[in-house]
Each structure stands twice: as C-alpha cells, then as structure tokens.
Amino acid sequence: MSVCLPAFIGYDNWEDVQLQDDSVEDGVFADTNTAGVTAIDVVIEGITYDYATYSSNISWDDDGKVSVQFGRLVTTAGKKRGYFVLKDPTMPNGLRWYPDFLLTVFEAPAA
Fold first, then answer.
1. How does DSSP classify residue 106?
2. Which of 35, 54, 74, 107 registers the highest number of CB atoms within 10 A of its CB?
3. Which residues of 14-41 are buried (b: 16+ CB within 10 A; e: fewer)?
C-alpha cells in the first residue's frame, strides 16, 4: 500500500514517512533500522533528488522515519509517484525502497 502525501510548491512543510520491513521476523512489519544509512535519495517521476545536493530538505532518524520538504524539491503541480533509495557503505548504489509514495503537489498561491 502506498503512502499519499501533500506537497506545496515553495513552502517549507516537512512530511514524514515511516519505513517498515519484516527483516527481524518474517511477515511481521516493524520500523526499519536506518542507523547505518549514510544517504537517502528521493526519486520523483524519474528525477533524483540526491542527499548530497538536497541535505537541507531530506532527513531521517535511526528508526526509519524519513522527513522531506517536498515543496522545496518539486516545481510543477499534479499527482506524482516517487520512492526512496537508501545508501550505506555496503550498498553504495542504494537499496530501492518499496512501496512507492504518491505525492499530490499544489501550486503556491499567487502573491
């Protein structure tokens, strides 16, 4: 099941996504341990927002909570699909996270 998130172009809203997996007990989902993760990239509609460039807009904690300022990344309104890529020293090319998230992007209001 995908997570549905809002984004407001140009705004600083942080949206949180809790990553979960069944690596501890098969079939039982729990918060993902991301203590060793060195970067999380965000991919939206084929555009990669890499952590090295967008570190002020992407963060996470050791318990798998990923926080993103989507309104600082996307520039066009509409419905979009995205996903996370987690990286650490053993996976320098990254682990493509599933499921995807769905993003509804709203235009910034006229000033």
1. E
2. 74
3. ebebebeeeeeeeeeeeebebeebebbb
